[in-house]
Design a protein that fits this description.
This protein is an all-alpha fold and 142 residues long. The protein has a domain at 29-41 and 54-136. It is built from 5 helices and no strands. The chain has helices at 18-40, 46-51, 63-85, 88-109, 115-136. It starts with 17 loop residues before the first helix and ends in a 6-residue tail after the last helix. Helix 1 runs antiparallel to helix 3 (63-85) and helix 1 (18-40) runs antiparallel to helix 5.
């Protein structure tokens, strides 16, 4: 099929399945989380605070705090895979609930943050809400 303006054939395109969109959004979200945490290490005093056993607003670094934050970061990581393999109805519910939860967590953690963190935080909220949107609008079978 030729493009009317150029006379050249249109670029090939294919419809991306919802499951793949959701997995890609979770992966993108994780990249933003990782870079935000990594760049945060460059903030003055952060490494010294870590060496003193403090975890920012979470207080002293304990096994419980580290387990909690590990769970918090493991969920989006695992959702990359689970979005591809779960049954559609279960996946839809999980993506809507977790997408909203992670958007709220990000919004709560942003006030008073450095500009780079606010920038990534806005992207993370948009990605989380896109997860909710695509899951909510999941097409039904004929």
């Amino acid at each position: 099929m030729a493009s009317p303006a150029s006379g050249k054939a249109a670029l090939e395109d294919w419809k991306v399945p919802v499951k793949l969109k959701l997995a890609a959004l979770w992966a993108s979200l994780m990249f933003c989380y990782i870079y935000g945490d990594y760049f945060g290490l460059y903030q003055p005093g952060t490494l010294q605070s870590m060496l003193e056993g403090k975890m920012g607003p979470l207080g002293p670094t304990t096994q419980g705090v580290l387990l909690g934050t590990s769970i918090l970061m493991a969920v989006p990581s695992v959702m990359v895979f689970l979005s591809l393999v779960m049954k559609p109805l279960i996946s839809r519910v999980a993506n809507v609930v977790l997408g909203l939860l992670y958007a709220i967590i990000m919004a709560v953690s942003m006030p008073g943050a450095w500009t780079f963190y606010l920038f990534l935080g806005v992207i993370e909220i948009v990605l989380s809400l896109l997860i909710v949107w695509y899951a909510w609008r999941w097409p039904r079978s004929a």
